[in-house]
Amino acid sequence: MNEISVEKLKEWPEDSYVLIDIRDEELVSYGMIPGAVFISYEELVEESCNALNRYDGKKLVFYCQIGRKTRELDDVKALEGKDAYSLEGGYMAYIRAGLSDESSLKERQQKAEESIRKKFHKQLFTPFAKACKTYKLISEGDHIAVCISGGKDSMLMAKLFQEIQKHRQCNFELTFLVMDPGYNRENRELIESNAKVLGVPITVFESDIFDAVDTIDKNPCYLCARMRRGYLYSRAKELGCNKIALGHHYDDVIETILMGMLHGAQIQTMMPKLHSTNFEGMELIRPMYLVRESDICAWRDYNDLHFLQCACHFTETCSTCHEDGTTSSKRLDTKKLIAELKKANPYVESNIFKSVENVNLDTVITYKKNGIRHNFLEDY
Length: 380
Description:
Elements: E1 2-4, H1 6-9, E2 17-21, H2 25-29, E3 37-38, H3 41-44, E4 59-63, E5 84-87, H4 90-99, H5 105-117, H6 121-134, E6 143-147, H7 152-166, E7 173-180, H8 185-198, E8 202-206, H9 209-213, H10 220-238, E9 243-245, H11 250-264, E10 273-275, E11 283-285, H12 293-302, H13 328-344, H14 348-355, E12 366-369, E13 372-375
Parallel strand pairs: 1-5, 2-3, 2-4, 4-5, 6-7, 6-9, 7-8, 9-11
Antiparallel strand pairs: 10-11, 12-13
Helix pairs in contact: 4-8, 11-13, 11-14
């Protein structure tokens, strides 16, 4: 299959070709090239695949995340006799091409900031500020390390922190902290470019976490997440910070609650703030706690922004992990389950969220407090 660059593709008439995204669902949910259609790699390689027939007479341009998987399509039966191409560099190449125009940087930053103040104020800034107030996440004199992974959640969190700081209701400092755990060059450049577009002054430090977990067979994503957290705490403390902020949102919370029950046989939640057990005087806060993921995506798409999802050595061509160390297959399945339940009960999401606020210990057989297990028979 011949490769075509993003620049060459732009020279073709738009009605002469169709862009086909063959990445997995989790990556697709983080954004597609405008006008592209999604056909899973698994469907494409099936003997009986006829999904391409509707595009007869057009050039077929396939893309994956960084251009590796599309090179494996040469022998796919469904492509026999088709005028097919592979997008050189994949989705990442498309994103980099869009970030290369520095003349529009100021305009894009202003649009992103104005959309937070106006169009998405109720959906984004209001729940962000409410979480900060309800859970007392920001205090006078705080120095907060805003931890940026490069994804949509943490980048928006950075902008919301900048916005709430302008309100001057209390004095606090911000350091926008990015850890490079071993990204390839393209992913590192994407984070730096997005920070530049959004006007976020990032502080970058490097670690070798990806290399360290490469040789781990059992739960590498969990280990990676724990190690990243430790490195962030350590560097933040060195910089004089007393808190680190992570970008977990409302949907992460309810998915975690349900996953704990279905896969972990336990009832627990993702807390809005935590004291560090290993770094004295440090706290973890989650100011996006009440922000809905759909609203984050709407802000991202409105501003034509494209962010990093996961870019470790396990996920350069597909997605297998999540920021908290859970596998994306479990999280995606849970997300789909909640969507199905919502069809019958529109309040199911808020009910899951509120369930851990309404725990009745009189009806709980066993519970833990400070690591000690208690049984209802103790007080029966």
